[in-house]
Amino acid sequence: MKKLFLATFLLAASAAPLVAQQQILPLYPSAIPDSKPNKSVTETAEKRPNVAEFVRQVVQPKLLVYPAPADKANGTAVVVCPGGGYGFLSMVNEGYQVAEKLNAMGITVFVLKYRLPDDRTQPDKSIAPLLDVQQAIRMVREQAAKFNVNPNRIGVAGFSAGGHLASTAGTHFAKPVGNKPGPTSVRPDFLILAYPVITFNDSLTHRGSRENLIGKNASAEQVQLYSNELQVSAQTPPTFLIHTQDDGVVPVQNSLLFYQACLRHKVPVEMHLYPKGGHGYGFYNRTTKDDWAERLRNWLDMNGWLTK
């Protein structure tokens, strides 16, 4: 399963030129919460030219900023959470290429290099990724004028395990994690979830993501807490879902569960399912001539997020 997981990311990350980020910003201005020093742990990146960049062991979380072109900018921002099973970050097909697609829609993009769960560097590894995505939303919202974005038009996009993190951001915002979260809302204004890990239920979860985040011996309470279909409420942001029937890594039922939960709570939701495509393809599902980026563009436009 692990080889299949990596192979799908390698295959998918080979398309399209990339835009260059304009800034790389530290996520925290001073001390990093839920962090403990360990000199033996340093960030590593496996780079294969024009194919993939897998980042592991993130110690210093960052935001990679991709401003929308001035002639297209509409004030909408998206924080992007790459996937990788909470064990690595697939930075090309689920980061840089996403920025390129969304920039073309006039959206300013913040690719989040979030911390991966690690007992060696985090007192509570289960909250480190959520701390980081909430801080990213907070930072973009508080500095909206600097980034030329609307503080009420900040979405979160996530792919695979990054989709789990994005859906956690969209369902756990009422009580932000951390000791001093401050008054700024960390609720995303919308969610974009691509082949997301949603549930930690035994039969449908991606076990590697679950074990990396909450451990092999997690309590039933933790499993329920991070099964995000169980955490949807009427306040969950409008959501766009994409998945494929033949996903052999994260079963399509993950998206179905979140969709059904949104229906129950009357959360606006749109879902597109394809029969083939597997997993880890980012915006480039080569099994169909349909471009799901266009389905996303239509949804964003319909909701007013592409209006200048």
Automatic annotation (TrEMBL):
UniProt keywords, alphabetically: Hydrolase, Signal
Cleaved signal peptide residues: 1-20
Domain BD-FAE-like: 66-260
NAD listed as a keyword: no
Gene Ontology molecular function: hydrolase activity
Protein name: Alpha/beta hydrolase
